[in-house]
Write a structure and sequence with these properties.
Largest sheet of chain A: 6 strands, mixed
Radius of gyration of chain B: 13 Å
Number of helices of chain A: 0
Helix content of chain B: under 10%
Distance between the termini of chain B: 35 Å
Number of strands of chain B: 11
Oligomer: heterodimer
Order of helices and strands of chain A: EEEEEEEEEEE
Structural class of chain A: mainly beta
Largest sheet of chain B: 7 strands, mixed
Distance between the termini of chain A: 41 Å
Order of helices and strands of chain B: EEEEEEEEEEE
Structural class of chain B: mainly beta
Shape of chain B: globular
Shape of chain A: globular
Largest interface: A-B, 24 and 29 residues
């Protein structure tokens, strides 16, 4: 099956700094999503982005499907951005998402 | 409000006991999924169902069972055969067909007494 790898595994930022999280996947995908898991365990859907670029406030994401990677950009980070960021991908049809191991982000004031 | 409802939020299991986790959605989604998350880890797929009365095993199905008698409901039973059930369980759903994201419920935390 598809393999999803995220880097870095851990990231510590000063408040106000920018960061880039990377997701590599092993096969062609028709679904790629980025999630933020908050301290209560809720998975917040950030982006559905099998290809192209999207922006939502201070967050943006780019997926280059032909090169099998996706990037999540966080600008002007805030302490509320802390948590774990997951990338998940799926092959064609209705196949389930396969998750990476996540990037644990800590933003300190 | 449309969404995915998981209950209970917290559940405790005694040795040798089966417990059932509920997942209900009112999004009219065809496909539903169960994932398990261990501390500090990503999510792993237990079971999924693309249509009523049909379901497939995921990567870690041993010790679990599911049913899909109604489109909106996909309960997960953690049986006594699952020797390490302590984990966070997340249910998801999506519309079938390409180009649609998966949506997740808020999860159930299961612990052994």
């Amino acid at each position: 099956g598809i393999q999803v790898e995220q880097s870095p595994p851990d990231l510590i930022l000063q408040e106000g700094a920018n960061s880039t999280l990377r997701c590599n996947f092993s096969d062609s995908v028709n679904n790629l999503q980025w999630f933020h898991q908050n301290p209560w365990g809720q998975l917040i859907n950030l982006f559905y982005i099998p290809s192209g670029t999207k922006q939502n406030g201070r967050l943006s994401a780019t997926t280059v499907a032909t090169e099998r990677y996706s990037l999540l950009y966080i600008s002007s980070s805030q302490t509320t951005d802390s948590g774990v960021y997951f990338c998940a991908a799926a092959l064609g049809g209705n196949t389930p998402l396969v998750f990476g191991k996540g990037t644990r982000l800590s933003v300190i004031a | 409000d449309g969404g995915i409802t998981q209950s209970p939020k917290y559940l405790f299991r005694k040795e040798g006991q089966n417990v059932t986790l509920s997942c209900e959605q009112n999004l009219n989604h065809d496909a539903m999924y169960w994932y398990r998350q261990d501390p500090g880890q990503g999510l792993r797929l237990i079971y999924y169902s693309q249509i009523v009365n049909d379901f497939q095993k995921g990567d870690i199905a041993e010790g679990y069972s599911v049913s899909r008698e109604k489109k909106e409901s996909f309960p997960l039973t953690v049986t006594s055969a699952q020797k390490n059930p302590t984990a966070f369980y997340l249910c998801a759903s999506r519309i079938t067909g390409g180009g649609q994201p998966q949506h997740f419920g808020d999860g159930t935390r299961l612990s052994i007494l």
